[in-house]
Amino acid sequence: MSGIGEFIDSEVKGNDVVLFMKGTPGFPQCGFSGQVVQILDYVGVDYKGVNVLTSDELRQGIKEYSNWPTIPQLYVKGEFVGGCDIIREMFQSGELKSLLDEKGVTVKAA
Questions:
Q1: How many other C-beta atoms lie within 10 A of the C-beta of residue 96?
Q2: Alpha carbon distance 61, 66 (integer Å)
Q3: Which of 1, 73, 74, 79 is most buried, judging by how many CB atoms fall within 10 Å of its CB?
């Protein structure tokens, strides 16, 4: 695994919930990243945002890591959950909260 792969791996495994996104949670720089941030904030889950715009290597590396072509990408307890469309569908159906509950991730709001 390359240096960037190791960095991604440690972020994914070292945080319960990680969002690889364009921009930061406080200042998303793409609409899709912004939507996922809004959903996570609404659900009330603590998560770490990793800005892929800081490096081309990171932006490319995360796509290879997950074998998923788009950003944002959400990971829960080391597992890739999905991108914006999947997260939105899971949120609307209540699956996202169920997944977080199942994985033992604390959510503050409902």
A1: 25
A2: 9
A3: 73
